[in-house]
Amino acid sequence: MIYLDNSSTTPIDETVLDAMLPWLRSGFGNASSIYKLGREARVAVEDARMEFASLLNAHPAEIIFTSGGTESNNTILKSCADESGLIESILTGSTEHHAVLLPAQAMQARGLHHECIPVDANGRVVIESLAALNISRTLVSVMHANNETGVIQPLAAIRQNIPNALFHSDAVQSFGKIPVDVAALGVDFLTLSAHKIHGPKGIGVMFIRKGIDFKSHQQGGGQERNRRAGTEPVALIVGAAVAARRACNDMAERSQHMANLISLAREQIARTIPNVRYNTPLEESLPNILNVSFLDADELDGEAILQSMDMKGVAVSNGSACVSGSVQPSHVLLAMGLPPSEAKAAVRISVSKDNTLTEVQEAITILADVVRVLRG
Ligand SMILES: Cc1ncc(COP(=O)(O)O)c(C=O)c1O
């Protein structure tokens, strides 16, 4: 199989797995226990916390482990509104992941104000539109890079326009591909997930800037400074930190390799498939994602392409895998102004450090065949 759906998830690295296994076997202690087995687990958790803090330019006390991107986003949005009582409104980008949009809508149903910030044709937040929005007692949530198109948002510039708001960014897709420095980006909250960077599934990070009076909706054993109750999954935390360190250490090399693969895919599509629209801009986008629509969309849809590619042994996505199964056109592409037919006819190719030029060439050859057949 040729796996080109790495924005959905990535295979775990052997070194990550090796680092985790001792914590699933003999090192099974509870990190809150005060005897040796527990203390050793605590050291492993705190080492991982320091690792993330140093990679993000944060303080260890600002790093909270969660079960992943979805939980981090939900906790930040809901707890800022409810338990912490910090905000009265939430502004989100209109192309956010559903793990941001749906909690924001749920808060709206409970009386909070929620508004979507418009994006331009490339999917970037229209910064000028921020001036018209009411920003007091507000959480602004704009993702660092989009999971469907790879477009990077100008977070630092957005921050300059919302000096008084609380600022959250979902950096699940950008982390490990481009630098993520919480000070430079000016964010108060940040979300990460390990399984997008060859780490294990079910583990993520929530960065909460020191000094914010944040009270979490999750209550229980008081772990993670009362911000994420629940016994720490030591092996997952250790694995996440190893994956993160490797992704950041090798970022330049990995990103260059992925960018070469994506530019090869672009060139080959341009040569072999007529009538396409590139939904991923050439500038300011992640090195690993290419989203294209096929323009005679009446009969063609991304779902059909995905299924035909699957039958030929190639895994790609039609937009966000988190909403696959749904026949709705992508809300991201619609927000960028694509007509529903073009949004439905989109395919996302996302590569990782492990893909090869030959794989990409083969996959695009198959894609060209599939599109030709489906176009009749
Ligand atoms: C941008 C973005 N945010 C959040 C998530 C959810 O992360 P997790 O799978 O760790 O819950 C994803 C997963 O696809 C994502 O791409």
CATH class of the largest domain: Alpha Beta
Strand order of the largest sheet: 2-8-7-6-5-3-4
CATH topology of the largest domain: Aspartate Aminotransferase, domain 2
What's the average pLDDT?
95
Q: Mind summarizing the main beta sheet?
A: 7 strands, mixed
Helix coverage percent: 25-40%
Question: What distinguishing features does this structure have?
Answer:
single chain; 376 residues; Aspartate Aminotransferase, domain 1; Aspartate Aminotransferase, domain 2; three-stranded antiparallel beta sheet; 12 helices; binds pyridoxal-5'-phosphate
Architecture overview:
The protein starts with a strand and ends with a helix. It has twelve helices and twelve strands. Strand 3, helix 4 and strand 4 form a beta-alpha-beta unit. The longest helix has 22 residues. The protein has two domains: 132 residues, Aspartate Aminotransferase, domain 1, CATH 3.90.1150.10; 236 residues, 3-Layer(aba) Sandwich (Aspartate Aminotransferase, domain 2), CATH 3.40.640.10. The chain is globular, with a radius of gyration of 21 Å. The site of pyridoxal-5'-phosphate has 13 residues, from helix 3. Pyridoxal-5'-phosphate binds next to helix 3.
